């Protein structure tokens, strides 16, 4: 029964009983870990000492857990709260984006598959949401880090249909199955999407470590990457509406 200690962020939790929780933790070195925290909600001095009063969604801390080959759930034995992220309870927009990040990470990552770069990106994203402005640029950097580290980095320079470098165009087509752009027309496939040149240029800047752009272009880039993840997952997560916008009422 391997025991480990690691830095973690709570990306999902449900009440299992009056005193216990089932949690999904994104850990730095052990990937996504689902576990049972027995007694984590008790207010006894011993439980508070072991669990800091409970494991709350979108908080960060140090976890001690035991894994068993016969169970999908680890046993969470200790949780030391270190990043309470109070600002996520004070700003609605920040809270929604944080929930979206937790949702996408939970869906994109397999259990026990370490992604330390994704952990660092989520930790930084939650921290930077404390700033009331700049959420869109912060989200764009998170989007790019998650997709790149999971092996879904979009091809930005070569034409994935015709081959060779992408020529200059005002509008390109993006093929989610090939994971890149083409200068071919819409007739190549009904499943491709039109993407403006300014959006592609911003993605290139983001890939190079720069993410500056006007508000409208950044918003378009975030919607594009959100739709790309939707295509990868073949489903729309409930929190994606915080990026894509609510559908129009009938």
Q: What is the helical fraction, as a range of percent?
A: 25-40%
Main sheet overview:
5 strands, mixed, barrel
Q: Mean pLDDT across all residues, rounded?
A: 92
What structural class is derived from the secondary structure elements?
alpha+beta
Written as H for each helix and E for each strand, in order along the chain, the element string is EEEHEEHHHEEEHHH
**SS strand fraction:** 15-25%
Gyration radius (Cα, Å) is 20 Å
CATH fold type of the domain at 1-84: OB fold (Dihydrolipoamide Acetyltransferase, E2P)
Regarding CATH, which class of the domain at 1-84? Answer: Mainly Beta
Q: State the end-to-end distance.
A: 54 Å
Strand segment tally: 8
List unreliable stretches of 5+ residues.
Answer: none
Overall CATH architecture of the domain at 1-84: Beta Barrel
Q: How many distinct helices?
A: 7
Widest sheet, order of strands: 1-2-3-5-4
CATH superfamily membership of the domain at 1-84, which one?
Nucleic acid-binding proteins
Which overall shape is indicated by the principal axes computed on the Cα atoms?
elongated
List the helices and strands and how they pair.
Blueprint: E1 3-15, E2 21-27, E3 31-37, H1 45-51, E4 60-66, E5 74-83, H2 92-108, H3 116-128, H4 135-149, E6 171-175, E7 180-182, E8 193-196, H5 197-207, H6 215-233, H7 241-244
Parallel strand pairs: 3-5
Antiparallel strand pairs: 1-2, 1-4, 2-3, 4-5, 6-7, 6-8
Helix pairs in contact: 2-3, 2-4, 3-4, 4-6, 5-6
């Amino acid at each position: 029964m391997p025991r480990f200690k690691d830095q973690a962020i709570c990306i999902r939790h449900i009440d299992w009983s009056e005193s216990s929780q089932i949690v999904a933790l994104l850990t730095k070195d052990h990937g996504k870990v689902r576990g049972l925290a027995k007694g984590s909600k008790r207010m006894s001095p011993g439980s508070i000492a072991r669990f800091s009063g409970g494991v709350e969604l979108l908080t960060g801390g140090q976890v001690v857990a035991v894994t068993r080959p016969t169970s999908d759930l680890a046993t969470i034995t200790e949780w030391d709260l270190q990043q309470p992220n109070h600002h996520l309870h004070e700003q609605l927009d920040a809270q929604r984006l944080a929930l979206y990040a937790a949702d996408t990470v939970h869906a994109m990552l397999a259990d026990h598959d370490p992604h330390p770069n994704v952990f660092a990106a989520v930790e930084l994203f939650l921290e930077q949401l404390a700033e009331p402005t700049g959420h869109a640029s912060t989200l764009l950097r998170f989007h790019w880090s998650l997709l790149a580290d999971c092996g879904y980095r979009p091809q930005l320079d070569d034409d994935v249909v015709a081959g060779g470098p992408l020529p200059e165009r005002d509008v390109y087509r993006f093929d989610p199955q090939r994971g890149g752009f083409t200068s071919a027309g819409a007739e190549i496939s009904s499943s491709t999407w039109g993407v403006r040149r300014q959006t592609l240029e911003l993605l290139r800047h983001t890939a190079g470590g720069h993410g500056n752009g006007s508000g409208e272009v950044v918003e378009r880039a975030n919607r594009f990457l959100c739709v790309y993840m939707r295509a990868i997952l073949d489903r729309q997560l409930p929190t994606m509406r915080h990026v894509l916008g609510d559908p129009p009422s009938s």
